[in-house]
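User: I'm curious whether this sequence folds into something compact or stays loose and floppy. Could you predict its structure so I can see for myself?
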Amino acid sequence: MEIKPKSKFLTLYFLCFLLLTSCTEKKKIKHEILRPVHVSEAIKMTVPVYVSSFGYLTAEQSVDIKSQVTGRILECHFKQGEQVKKGELLFTIDPSLYKAALSKAEANLKKDMADLKMKKMIVDKDQGLVQHGAVSIQDYRQYETDLEKVIASIKYDQSIVENCRIKLQYCKIKSPISGVAGVRKVDPGNIVTANSGPTLVNIKTVDPLYLDFTIPEKNLLRLKNSMKKRKLKVLLFVDEFGIEKSIQGKVYTGTLKFFGNSIDHETATIFLRAVIPNKKNELWPGQFVRLFLILDDIKDAVLVPYQSVNRGLKGNYLFKINKSNRAELVYVKVGQKMESYIVIYDKDIKPGDKIVTVGQMGLAPDVKVKIVEEDSFPKPDFTEARNAAYSKIEKVSKKIPKKDFINKKILKNKNIPANQKQLSK
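Assistant: Here's the prediction. I'll summarize afterward.
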């Protein structure tokens, strides 16, 4: 059968169309859309294993000052809220009655001392006369009894004198400790009762301070094992609200002193107490603080930026950029959060790996990416000299030309969380 020229032409046209279409598809396959992302390197460092909690600072010594004698307050010698030293005069109670009582007791003592001389002289004189029969034995025994009575009276008088002197000393109320005086609760002119009267003022020590807090009972075994190895440190962070800017975010270091002898079954927690040095008096009794109880150290731990880790149906995951600039989806097991970073337990993540910090929403496995910015975050620092406890993430970015920066307005929008910023084409 002979093919007509018109059919040949149609067949040839159809073949050319297929050829051109296939070439176009190949070009489309070769042209991939590069997803812009921010990245940061995974780091390796020794990090502490800690239990986070909160607690209150308490004074090592707290003394309620009360009067030990009854009388009228003549004068107050301290200023409320200021430091007082041990032995410093705080109040003066009217000493008139106690001076009079002391004078009376001393007079009785002198009287009995004079009587003692007379009785002793009689006994000494009659001792020889008894041997010669000039004085009866019965009379002599009476003289000795009178002498012993006088000696007993003198001892009683001496105790009365000492008691009056002590009460006279109590008229000057002195501070038993060095600390900070609180509110004066009784003003001069008021009469106070001995021992059962009101508290005049409270004095608290401020250096060092106790830190009282609790941790979940599930950490008890780790706590006991760690205490066998070394003295445990406590890092204390002061809330930024209502304090001086000079100590906002400052870290204070203390030592764990002991833990309680029982677990609170209602809260499933155990009580702990730490000692916090406070030489500059920057901390204050009753202050609420946050803290980290350091149990151990993890050597050569791998950390990635906290905002790079996302939660999915299969668990926590992140995107790693390989040498071909393609995204790799890695499911990871996370550990403790360390400020801007989080500990990762995964062999696929190594120090120096580039981890996506911004742009995860537009990624998928094996997607080609374009790194538009490399973010740097402050490394976790749990030393005593650190000046920012809950520091905000400070990005030190390597800027690129504007033509390569896509959707710049989205990235600059501070109202959108960093890990939810999506960079579009």
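Summary: The mean pLDDT is 81. The first strand starts at residue 35 and ends at 41.
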